């Protein structure tokens, strides 16, 4: 695929007649021009509406939180310096707190594969733009599955790199190769033992048969490519990991000065986390990669990305806050493991007969980012 297939002229044509629900932008400026020339020249990207771009509004997923950004986020500035053109902002839920994309007071993007259903979140606007073919790639971020969930829900690729925090920036793309290019990585195919896990880790939920089938078919492709695969089961400390995730995730929202509804509930949860609980959660995250390596004795694990198909828009927000949180976990009961452990993970689309593609998820245990991308390329060449 040539980057020149995605031009401003083509984007203007493709946007004609699309509503904000269909295109997923909260702000759009197709008159902008690249500021620099470099390795990403020709790439046209949107930026998630939690992240600042100087001269563009940032809504943080709530119309009353909107402000005009005066400086550009360093990760995004690196893209601009490398020649990428930033033409707008993509929709996200308030503060990126949920795995749907229903910002307060702003349009709610629709899923291109499942009309009337959520595109997932919190990088849902980005996934919609890539899935509709408006953009070749879109900036995103992942603090609990927020790149991989919408990628799976919309049938595209979502790579969460390793990092130093629960949340890391990344991209939703049309291919594994594009993810590697944007991160400046050269994928390499590793020698690896792959654990296959279809049982949910962090919630009691029945995994849809077509999700299990996709994982089994993906495992067969890996075996055919010479990789050893082995069935694995949930590790004994999974409940402690999810508690650590909740403590780290909510604690950082404890000092919000303006919070109501679901955001207010998350803030309240964070204020209940003691300093000791937060310290223990962070320690759990530090030792977790070693725990996983010792228990599973594999280099990567293969799971579904989602337990079932995307629900209808409004599904999560119709629930009370605790049930909303629990239902989000049931939908994606594997992804946050790799946020806590700070390990790389990727969702790639897998074809299912008479059904939109579904996401299969590879998470690195001993593999670095480049090796995980090389492994993912076997599944999505």
Automatic annotation (TrEMBL):
Catalytic activities: a monocarboxylic acid amide + H2O = a monocarboxylate + NH4(+)
EC number: 3.5.1.4
One Pfam family recorded for the sequence: Amidase
Record-annotated Amidase domain positions: 31-174, 294-373
Assigned protein family: Belongs to the amidase family.
Protein name: amidase
């Amino acid at each position: 695929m040539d980057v020149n297939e995605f031009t401003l002229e083509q984007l203007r044509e493709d946007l004609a007649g699309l509503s904000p629900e269909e295109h997923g932008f909260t702000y759009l400026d197709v008159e902008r021009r690249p500021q620099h020339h470099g390795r990403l020249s020709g790439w046209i990207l949107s930026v998630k509406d939690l992240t600042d771009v100087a001269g563009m509004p940032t809504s943080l997923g709530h119309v009353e939180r909107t402000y005009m950004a005066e400086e550009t986020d360093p990760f995004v500035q690196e893209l601009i310096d490398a020649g990428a053109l930033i033409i707008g902002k993509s929709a996200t839920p308030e503060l990126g707190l949920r795995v749907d994309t229903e910002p307060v007071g702003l349009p709610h993007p629709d899923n291109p594969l499942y009309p009337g259903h959520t595109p997932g979140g919190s990088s849902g606007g980005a996934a919609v733009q890539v899935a509709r073919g408006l953009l070749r790639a879109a900036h995103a971020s992942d603090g609990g599955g927020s790149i991989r969930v919408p990628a799976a829900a919309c049938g595209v690729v979502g790579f969460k790199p390793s990092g130093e925090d629960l949340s890391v920036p990344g991209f939703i793309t049309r291919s594994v190769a594009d993810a590697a290019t944007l991160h400046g990585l050269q994928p390499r195919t590793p020698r690896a033992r792959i654990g296959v896990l279809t049982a949910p880790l962090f919630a009691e939920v029945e995994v849809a048969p077509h999700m299990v089938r996709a994982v089994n078919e993906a495992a067969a492709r890996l075996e055919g490519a010479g990789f050893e695969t082995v069935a694995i089961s949930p590790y004994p400390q999974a409940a402690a990991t999810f508690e650590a995730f909740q403590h780290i995730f909510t604690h950082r929202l404890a000092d919000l000065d303006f919070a109501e509804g679901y955001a207010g509930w998350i803030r309240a949860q964070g204020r209940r986390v003691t300093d000791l609980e937060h310290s223990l959660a962070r320690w759990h995250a530090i030792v977790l990669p070693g725990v996983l390596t010792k228990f599973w004795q594999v280099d990567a694990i293969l799971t579904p990305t989602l337990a079932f198909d995307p629900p209808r828009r409004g599904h999560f927000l119709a629930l009370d806050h605790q049930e909303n949180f629990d239902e989000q976990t049931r939908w994606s009961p594997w992804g946050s493991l790799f946020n806590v452990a700070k390990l790389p993970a990727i969702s790639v689309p897998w074809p299912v007969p008479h059904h939109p593609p579904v996401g299969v998820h590879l998470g690195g245990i001993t593999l670095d980012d480049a090796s995980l991308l090389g492994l993912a390329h076997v599944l999505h060449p």
